[in-house]
Amino acid sequence: MKKLFVGILLVCLVLPAFGQRKAQALMAKKPLTHAAYDEWKSITFRQLTPDGKNLAYTLNPEDGDGKLVFLNLGSNQVTEVQRAVNIQLTEDSRHALFLIKAQKDSLIQLRRLKKKKEDMPKDSLGIFDFQSRQVVKIPQVKSFKIPAKSGGWMAYQSENLEAEGESEGNDTKPKKVSDDNGYPLVLINLKDRSELKFDYVKDFTFSEKGNALVFYSTGNDKGGQAGIFWHDLEEAKTSLLLEAHSKYKFKFLSLDEAGEQLAFVADMDTTKALLRQPKLMYWKKGMEAAEQIADENTAGIPENWLVSDNFRPYFSKSGERLFLGTNPPPILMDTTLLPEEMVQVEVWHWQDDYIYPEQNVRADRERKRSYLAWIDLNDRKLVQLGSPEISEIRVDEEGKAGIALGMDDRAYRMMRTWDISAYNDIYAIDLNTGTPRLIEAEIKGMPRLSPDGGYVFWYSSPDIAWYAHGLATGETVNLTEGLDVSFGNELTDVPDFPSPYGVAGWSTGEEFVLVYDRYDIWQLDPKGEKTAVRITKNGRENQRVYRYEKLDPEERMIDLSTELLLSVFEEGNKDAGFARWEKGKANPEMLVKTAHRYNLLQKAKSADVLLYSRENFQEFPDLHVADMSFGKARKVTQANPQQGNYLWGTAEIVKWNSLDNIPLEGILYKPENFDPNKKYPMVVVYYERFSNTIHQHHKPEPIRSLVHRTMYVSNDYLIFIPDIVYQTGYPGESAFNCIIPGVSHLIAQGFVDKDRVGIQGHSWSGYQTAYILTRTNMFRAAEAGAIVANMTSAYGGIRWESGLARMFQYEKAQSRLGVSLWENPLPYLENSPLFFANKIETPMLLLHNDADGAVPWYQGIEMYLAMRRLNKPTWMLNYNGEPHWPVKRENRIDFQTRMMQFFDHYLKDAPMPLWMQRGVPAIEKGMRQGLELVDDNN
């Protein structure tokens, strides 16, 4: 009994002391402010060396100079380089190469002094040796390249080096280095640091395996020839492949995988003719010079067509085929007319395939459109595959199959106005003749070729099924027929067919195609002869989502005889991790699973080392390494140690039922020093479904459009993120039915101040916010960005960024009305907050920018003018020239500042800022921001 008393006494003494220390620690922390943005770093680049012994990563602030860090994973030795960008690691794990930028502050200062471009600091080249851990710097470098699959070599171009012919003393005016003339190219052997310089180079490339360097030089003033050169890196020999005139133009130096063949496009017409006639040039090791292999007169190219100079030619993996682009002659401008003599008119035809705004967006792409052709390099026969009728042609990954996939969407383009989903007629194209054979008409889905080109396969949205068409047999098989699970999104609540969960890949030899349902991976026989097998077995039973992790970027097919790494996500508790699948095992073996979000970033190419990030609301996604079983796992970065100085928060799942009695989930973010006996202001933030993102980290940064949940909870707000489910025809009411009971549920817990609840949304959720305000006075303040106020006028609007008509959004997509305006106008009226603005009593802050390419900004104007006419407190922010949300950093900070001031005023009784009290008149724009808080006592 005495021992028990002593134990209780110790607990009574320890607990208050522990609580006191915790309280003191919290008091030492400070709330986040907008000034904290600059303290936070992001890891924007991260890569293991192929041998898995070293890690390179960057720590970059959003604004300012960052650094590149090289970490030896064995010794933990660290080397840092400031302001490094464009980082590349060599295949032999020996070197890293990168450009070093000038200090941002110095560049800004020079710009203030209006320095000319040529007087601005130039980049330097950095070469880091992983063995000596030394950095060599080369000043004033324009660009550099290394072989993709070989170490030991690099080449760079510099503005700082003197080219032959540039020196003083020449009788003629020396040739200057420039974009037109080219720049010196320096080839460096990274093993012995020997160098070789070539003058006036305009373009250069390495072969993948590092056995050759090809470049185009305009020649120098001392007899150096102009032309295309081949430098053999193994024999240290340079050969002229094609001598060039100074007015020749060359594009697309393309090498085969073996590094023994070259193709490029040449314009060798020295006249000023408007109609250019490019030639396709070809060279193979052993040939004395490059020769023309195709032009406008080549047999097989359609009459009057040209070789395209907008298509990069490429070789098949075997090197036996050369693929190229062709095109009809372009429409030429009448150069005899002055600009004021030209008629500039848009003719919008009611039967245009694409509406005119979309034509404008696509115009440059259409001018450069090429149609695929190929040349058999054994007999030089050219076969045209693509045509204006069947413009999209896809060949297998290695370019070796005898049949290609062709797609024709011409008959369905007009439908894009009201149904954006892709329809296609699909064809098998005989590579030997170019002859098409119809496989299937009116496919709603995106067909693809299997890796070796044995099958065309696609997901058909209308019947929620996967199909495969055997190109050898000509037979089409429904692969999922009779299976009692859905391979389309089970949570789809738009008035359209559900989209697929996706494809993991094809197994070796194209024996099976592996596709996903909501939880599991299925093995499907493309011939339709073998029974479908759910290889993960227990996903659906446990509400566990399995997805295949591709560890080799060059993997073409999945070897089912080996172990496979799978990602795991638990829908129930939101835990995540990784599992190992092995053929014959009952269930995948769980390797790691925690209350985090994981992102597998890389497997070292030649070592069993995994690089991944792990995060949750409190934990920044720092980098971790582990072995293939996630053993010996350890965190290897600490990007933001200063987080410990700030008040943060917690995230938890909340459950309730909608007014339609649908079970729902959401996320509630609470302050770190949360007191359940205290009443907190709360802001509701939402956009369809967010609950599965509970473990996402939100570092302080000026985000574009939504309330920053970390910033607000650090300042004693609650943030509630409810999931929304929708009923076709009632999008606004659906949001109301989901959000209102969720807020009421939290108010009933006793820690939400029911009189200090705000709501905020942008774009789709901005619309819903405006709608909800017409139905309730529950919210004391609301911010709604890029809203649709009037569905009748928005239905007939244009998404100017893409040129698409907006009709599809209402009939088939996110706006979820499911009918046209003329089939049933009532949903368009009933769901438009504009027509019920007189019922709104909540002060509202609107954001709508005048360059919004998604939601026309006149929608925001309609709402603003309605509220103004009704004399209701409303403000509207328009960041001139900005798109759907503020992009410019200063504008993002400004928006986040104003939005927080707005909510602070209404939900915390903070003083009103000047911009809310009196606005910012046009004559003050850009000079006074009105962010000062107004003291009502003065």
Explain the layout of strands and helices.
Elements: H1 2-28, E1 41-42, E2 46-48, E3 54-61, E4 67-72, E5 78-82, E6 84-89, E7 95-100, H2 104-112, E8 124-129, E9 135-138, E10 141-145, E11 153-158, E12 183-189, E13 195-206, E14 212-217, E15 227-232, E16 237-243, E17 249-255, E18 261-267, E19 279-284, E20 291-294, E21 306-307, E22 314-315, E23 321-327, H3 356-367, E24 371-376, E25 381-384, E26 392-394, E27 403-408, E28 423-430, E29 436-444, E30 448-449, E31 455-460, E32 465-470, E33 476-478, E34 503-506, E35 513-516, E36 521-524, E37 533-534, H4 539-542, E38 544-548, E39 564-570, E40 576-581, E41 589-594, E42 597-603, E43 610-615, E44 622-626, E45 634-635, E46 649-657, E47 663-671, E48 680-685, H5 709-714, E49 718-722, H6 731-747, E50 752-762, H7 764-773, E51 781-785, H8 791-795, E52 798-799, E53 804-805, H9 807-811, H10 826-830, E54 844-847, H11 858-869, E55 874-877, H12 889-908, H13 914-918
InterPro entries: 6-blade_b-propeller_TolB-like, AB_hydrolase_fold, Peptidase_S9_cat
GO molecular function: serine-type endopeptidase activity
Keywords: Hydrolase, Signal
